Amino acid sequence: MIAVESINKQFAGRRVLDHLSFTVPDGQITALLGANGAGKTTCLRIITGLLRADAGRVRLGGVDVARDPMAARRQLGVVGDREGLYERLTVAEYLTMFARVQGLCGKELDRALQSVREELELDELWQRRTRGFSQGERMKVSLARALVHRPRHLILDEPTRGLDVLAARLLRRTLLRLRQQGTTILFSSHVMSEVSELSDRVLVMAGGRIVGGGSPAELLAHTGCDNLEDAFVTLAYGAAVGKRTEEEPA
Ligand SMILES: Nc1ncnc2c1ncn2[C@@H]1O[C@H](COP(=O)(O)OP(=O)(O)OP(=O)(O)O)[C@@H](O)[C@H]1O
Fold first, then answer.
1. Closest C-alpha to ligand 1, atom 18
2. DSSP per-residue letters across 52-79
3. Whose CA is closest to atom 7 on ligand 1?
4. Which of 1, 127, 163, 239 gets the most CB atoms within 10 Å of its CB?
5. What is the pTM of this model?
6. Probe ligand 1: pick from 15, 20, 36, 41, max atoms within 8 Å of CB?
């Protein structure tokens, strides 16, 4: 389980997260929604230990991320918003390096590399240096890096941004398979169709807090809307703009 407990974060005196609290249940896919600038990336960066909260704490499977970052990292895979691949390394070298950092070696390392290579269809990229990789190719390598040590928790910040149809489909299928295997997944997105397809639970952020949460069906029932986009808009921006106007095509 991921537990976010009353987190505050300010940038230059402006509060972005305001006693933000939520939990992400084990073995489920949870989507984090919010308008541009709502604080999703800030929240995800705090969960992954890349950024420190001003107050509050995050626990990953019971481990306090700020107090024991190494233990937290072992059970965490991250696909972030600013992916830095090491351009001089081949995919094989890059993934080997990250797997070793996670403590894998010998046969276990070989098995882990083979597993992500097959799962993410990396054969053609395997011996290529990552310099010049397309958005979709970078995503595959980032996801492979996040998964190579088979973490219990996976965090993804807008993972399908910039992906073509097939790459986005591969990513969605991979997430659904990981859920079947028991991985706990939290991802941010602006794409309502993928949120509907993937999510067991949806969390809506506004004003630095969670303003709505539940299964997609619960959010529809709570807002009285008949689709997730309207429910999101109602929760994130207020009821006045929640429903589509008559002129706007559905
Ligand atoms: N390092 C920083 N310094 C100053 N302000 C920052 C910093 N990081 C984030 N912010 C501000 O915090 C707010 C939340 O940003 P964040 O990137 O978390 O939003 P988001 O919900 O991920 O947005 P988007 O959907 O556009 O990606 C924004 O107003 C942003 O400008």
1. 39
2. --SEEEEEETTEETTT-HHHHHHTEEEE
3. 11
4. 163
5. 0.92
6. 41
